[in-house]
Amino acid sequence: MITRRTLLKTAAAAAATAVIPAPVIGQSSKKITFLTWNIIDQKELIEGWIKRFQSTRPGVEVEWLDKKGPDFGPFYQTQLTAGTPPDVINTQGALGLEYAAQGALLDLTPLFAKEAAVKNRYDANYLGNWVYEGKNYMVPFYITKTLLFYNKPMFAKADLAGPPKNFDEILAFAQKMTSGEASSGFITLNFDWLYWPLFAMNGVELVTPDLKKTAFNTPKAAEVLDKLAKATQSNAINKISWTGRWVEPNGAFGAGNIGMLHAHSPAYFFFKGQGSWVTPDTLGVAHMPGNYATPNSHGLGISKGSKNPELAWEFLKFITDNGQAGELAERRKLVTGNVAVDQASLAKLAKDDPTVYQVLKTQLEHTDKMTGNWRFGNDSRIKEAFWPEVQSALLGRKDAKSALADADRRMARELTRA
Amino acid sequence: MTSSSGGWWATRRNRQLALVVCFLLPSLVIFFLYRLLPLGWNVILSFQAWSPLKPAVWIGLENYREMWVYDDVFWVALKNTLIFIAASPLAIAAALGVALLVNSDLKGATVYRTIVFLSYPLMAVAVGIIWRWMYDERGGIINYALRASGLTTRPIGFLQDFDWALPSVIFAEVWQIIGFYMIILLTGLQSIPQNLYEAARIDGAPAWARFLRITVPMLRPSLFLCVVVGILNSFSSFDLVYIMTNGGPGHATELLITHIYKAAFVQSKFDYAAALTVVQFGLLMILTVAANRAAGGNAGAVERD
Hints:
The structure holds two protein chains of two kinds.
Chain A (H helix, E strand, L loop, with lengths): L3 H16 L2 H7 L2 E7 L5 H13 L5 E7 L1 H14 L5 E5 L2 H8 L6 H6 L1 H5 L3 H4 L3 E2 L2 E2 L2 E4 L3 E6 H6 L9 H10 L7 E5 L8 H4 L18 H15 L6 H4 L3 H8 L3 E7 L2 H8 L8 E4 L11 E5 L6 H11 L2 H11 L6 H14 L1 H11 L14 H16 L5 H18 L1
Parallel strand pairs in A: 1-2, 1-3, 8-9
Antiparallel strand pairs in A: 3-11, 4-5, 6-11, 7-9, 7-10
Chain B lengths: L2 H4 L5 H34 L2 E4 L2 E5 L3 H9 L1 H31 L6 H10 L5 H12 L5 H8 L16 H26 L3 H9 L4 H12 L1 H16 L2 H7 L11 H11 L3 H25 L11
Antiparallel strand pairs in B: 1-2
């Protein structure tokens, strides 16, 4: 039986709950989730960030989830469908733009307008990679773009003085370093448009500037494709360029019998671990002819469905500020897109590790010549329409003209559907 | 107590029925929630334009028109899936050969049986990785053996070549499943009454006639099971293809299941992926019914004493 005293106590408790300031209640239950892309190896670092972030914000909880690349998309899509998307997400390449186009990400433009200092912390050209229809959806977490690595002993053996200066020199140099099956001259990564500088340096455009129509089905593009296919057939360009993804091309270059590797900066750490021949004296680092490079950076964005967008923004700013970004740069030997951090980091690396310095320096140079970074909202569909056809030509299955015509038809369909 | 006084519960048959329903209910609920409901929703989704953050819009047969008219990859994937299925009888025939061998008086038959079966419990991902390395153009043992024996002078890019890729993946698939087929067929062989063979021998029937007139007909239920498993396996060989080739080069090893996955989770075309799934399901039903017919029409039925 409920006594009068119990009733009064209950009523008093209910009244007290009602008058407790809302922020106190909110603070005690605030939780955000941070989803990263395959950086489980940085567990200690990220857990340290979270601990520091939580220590200055009582009652706040940050949950960290990490997914490998192939698992990331399915996981995020299912969370979106369930209405429980992770608050802060880290994506690679153009995936962030696709999510933005689907309406999954928060537009950061108004937040930048309020806090110009935050926007100014990032390299403008890299930041621009996540602008979709005039709005900025992500900020740099760590940044990469392609460059040319070359095997100096193989260059010397072929009597080549330095890196190639144009497309035809790439092929000619590659041919000179090729010896049957024993060695080949050139290899490239191919995923996420990373091979596109080979076309860009020949003046080939994929689409019209308004991104509405295809522009690549030209005699020049057919000529370039044909030359690449013939060089592949003669083994001057290693076939793995068009069939491998990450491990295979980098591993092949690490084996020491391929003259040049066109890849983004993280490739250095992979092939260095595989090839004992890689030393500061034997590895050359250069830009591709014309200084063209395709970015493949990691960005951070906030899900529009976040229950705590202000806290998510706080967290995003926290992990990209000089302290945390500096730690990341130092531990992983990378560039973060935070201009001040990268300058300091490179200055230190110039003394401590000259080769890494050479590699990372390229990532901050000629950022106005980045290519293959079209702001499509359906990049994966465009890639799926274009790449298999071009791959067929590169591997000799189709002639260049037919392959480009088929790619044109399929890609035009995707552009129309967009 | 009579049925009139006890109502529906009074008859023994009804009480047995209630008991059967009680036993079946958990499975039926799970079957409904995890099979029928998603399947029904999938069919509806195939007639809609939908993505996780946009409301569904009814578009009729548009996704099917896209598939039929514009999607070249669908036809390639369909053809590859049918080739995959067509390879099942070869695997079953090979398994039958092995089963006949280990069912004979062969010395060490138990050991051979274990060795052949060992590949089956392996994870498809592990099988994919193992075979990918074995097929490797630079350091793979198959290319090494081919070159060492003088059969080829240049390494073969088994998984990189448009012509070799699909047969290579199928071979790995057959290698893994053959142990399962063998066990099923072996069980079938051991359940054939020996007096049938004795009678045939007395009548002077040669070995091939005994095989065709006794073994094959008596093995029909086991063969049907193998065929159905083979069809299902062909439709769901996602892991192996994903690990070994990811559908490439080009779309040379693309199967319907990998095409569905890419449409949904790489290109975020969930609606279109639903339409592809409906087509795959329809095809699966047709093939399963056909296999059942071929097996006599009552395969899998429980015979009452």
